[in-house]
Amino acid sequence: AQSVTQLGSHVSVSEGALVLLRCNYSSSVPPYLFWYVQYPNQGLQLLLKYTSAATLVKGINGFEAEFKKSETSFHLTKPSAHMRDAAEYFCAVTWFSGGYNKLIFGAGTRLAVHP
Amino acid sequence: SQTIHQWPATLVQPVGSPLSLECTVEGTSNPNLYWYRQAAGRGLQLLFYSVGIGQISSEVPQNLSASRPQDRQFILSSKKLLLSDSGFYLCAWRLRGTSGAYEQYFGPGTRLTVT
Predict the structure, then answer these.
(1) Taking a C-beta distance cutoff of 8 angstroms, is the pair A73, A23 a contact?
(2) Which residue among A94, A95, A101 places its CB closest to the CB of B51?
(3) Helices then strands (H, E): number in chain A?
(4) What is the pLDDT of residues A2-15, one digit of tens each?
(5) What is the pLDDT of residues A1-51, one digit of tens each?
(6) Which residues of A6-55 form beta strands (DSSP E)?
(7) Dist CA B106 CA A56 (whole Å)
(8) Do A107 and B103 touch (CB under 8 A)?
(9) Which one in A25, A81, B14, B98 has a CA-CA gap of 20 to 30 Å to A52?
(10) How confident is the model at residue B60 (pLDDT cuts 50, 70, 90)?
């Protein structure tokens, strides 16, 4: 069965520091992977997605993620954190079964950015 | 451009009362539609999805139901709310089709508190 594991439910960084949010997937078939961000009391917004075109994916707000098949990982990074990056981040996977109709989400990682 | 609306934005209901949450999408046709629930401190739980009018797939057995009376309208209902139904309800849409690259787009959410 396909699944997503996000290591670390809470991550805290200083403003200007590197952001690294971890995501590992389990899939028996080539996956499509997504990162979403959720600000308090709002819906989810797509940051970036992996669709097999390139292993290094650049997204909005300066975020990027690298697909590593050998490690079954899709970690999200940003070189320099801003206060506005404080939010909850979700990794998600979809696969062909059922026609890619469903996304499976990780439990989320809450990012705190302090001055 | 496409937009997704949810209402109401917030709702406080007593235990045992009925529920109706509405979601509508503008600017696209024949979308896949989804209902998720986000309980406090937890990730996203897929409740229902629909690939067409009158076609509903249920992911979690519970006292909730969903209906799709029109192509771009998705309704979440309950005859009798439970305390455990409290949470943040998110509607999402996706282009219909067998491409894993299609991301889901989320609405602003409805905060439901059952008292």
Answers:
(1) yes
(2) A101
(3) 0, 12
(4) 789 999 999 999 99
(5) 778 999 999 999 999 999 999 999 987 777 889 999 999 889 999 999 998
(6) 10-14, 19-21, 24-26, 32-38, 44-50
(7) 25
(8) no
(9) A81
(10) confident
